[in-house]
Amino acid sequence: MVPRLLLDMFKAPSERIISYPECVVQAFSTHMFGTTSHTVLIIMAFDRYVAICNPLRYAAIMTNKMVIKLTVSAWGVPLVLVGILLGLTIRLNRCRAMITNPYCDNAALFKLSCESVFINNVYGLTFTVVLFTVSIGSMVITYTKITVVCLMKKTSL
């Protein structure tokens, strides 16, 4: 995605054309990267919470089976969410064929359709709000608990 984007930056705007399949692949890659980044941050916050707040139980909680479950979740959840997101977009009939943006995302694919994209917008907004709320919320909660544990241990010494 990045080499193509860099190459297109040096072209005249009229020459920045990308095919529909390339645009879908680029949108999938971009959305998977962003969503997976958030799920990995959630898992990292959980891991740090267990390591700091329950250090003696860490090995019992973070077993190989748990690590596999967390890894599958880190990739599986984004795969399902992004799959639905792009599946809703791909189902739309296209009345235009030219994508002139050097960067493809869901919105660039919407512009090719003459149908209503209301459902796509609702799902995309819900997906974004839920993902950000869960990721930021889990990080705030776990790191707040970690801070409290650290402050309590400091005062008990």
UniProtKB/TrEMBL annotation:
<feature type="transmembrane region" description="Helical">
    <location>
        <begin position="67"/>
        <end position="90"/>
    </location>
</feature>
<dbReference type="GO" id="GO:0005549">
    <property type="term" value="F:odorant binding"/>
</dbReference>
<dbReference type="GO" id="GO:0007186">
    <property type="term" value="P:G protein-coupled receptor signaling pathway"/>
</dbReference>
<feature type="domain" description="G-protein coupled receptors family 1 profile">
    <location>
        <begin position="1"/>
        <end position="157"/>
    </location>
</feature>
<dbReference type="InterPro" id="IPR017452">
    <property type="entry name" value="GPCR_Rhodpsn_7TM"/>
</dbReference>
<keyword id="KW-1133">Transmembrane helix</keyword>
<dbReference type="InterPro" id="IPR000725">
    <property type="entry name" value="Olfact_rcpt"/>
</dbReference>
<keyword id="KW-0472">Membrane</keyword>
<keyword id="KW-0812">Transmembrane</keyword>
<keyword id="KW-0807">Transducer</keyword>
<dbReference type="GO" id="GO:0004984">
    <property type="term" value="F:olfactory receptor activity"/>
</dbReference>
<protein>
    <submittedName>
        <fullName>Olfactory receptor 4C11</fullName>
    </submittedName>
</protein>
<dbReference type="Pfam" id="PF13853">
    <property type="entry name" value="7tm_4"/>
</dbReference>
<dbReference type="GO" id="GO:0016020">
    <property type="term" value="C:membrane"/>
</dbReference>
<keyword id="KW-0675">Receptor</keyword>
<feature type="transmembrane region" description="Helical">
    <location>
        <begin position="122"/>
        <end position="144"/>
    </location>
</feature>
<dbReference type="InterPro" id="IPR052921">
    <property type="entry name" value="GPCR1_Superfamily_Member"/>
</dbReference>
